[in-house]
Amino acid sequence: MPDASAEKKATIVVFSGSMDKVMGAFIIATTAAAMGMKTTMFFTFWGLSALKKGGPAVACKRNWMQKMLAWMLPKSAASLPLSQLNMGGLGAGMMKQIMAQKKIASLPELIQTAQDLDVRMIACQMSMDAMGICREELLDSVEVAGAATYVGEASDAQINLFIS
Question: By C-alpha distance, which of 62, 54, 42 is closest to 161?
């Protein structure tokens, strides 16, 4: 029989770097946190783009392939493409306009809400190393850790999701 006094937990792996999928992950995370659940989000590979600060380029030690990736990847959550019908950014722009008209929170606003609700956001160290993403490029509140940290959190969580 489960312990009714045990802290309820939710974990979400964010593998996608698409605006709509990352928004879905943050909507679920902020909802779980607002319901009193300890919530952890683990960002890996393409999902790391959602955690970038944007702004001026940060000097990072990268090889030529990592430099190419850095050039091609979105610079922040505000510049993520849609997973479908992006049409060179036109679809994402239309979606942002519709969301603003309907007073739906933008992705940067959802990220701020998650920070306000103490959602734990972890960037995958291995993915950062592979893609040439350095700590200075990420939001200050983001932790950097390995998959073992995520598995530790997920092992006693009641909800575990993978957004790809």
Answer: 42
Partners of 140 in the β-ladder: none
Q: Which residues contact 91 (CB under 8 A, 6 or more apart)?
A: 81, 82, 84, 85
Per-10-residue mean pLDDT of the chain, 164 residues long, equals 74 96 97 98 97 88 90 91 91 92 95 98 97 94 97 96 94
Task: Report the candidate in 53, 78, 23, 32 with the shortest Cα–Cα distance to residue 134.
Answer: 53
Side by side, the strands of the sheet bearing 9-14 are 143-145, 120-124, 38-43, 9-14, 159-163
Whether the predicted model's global pTM rises above the 0.70 cut: yes
- Joined tokens for residue 13: 């792996």
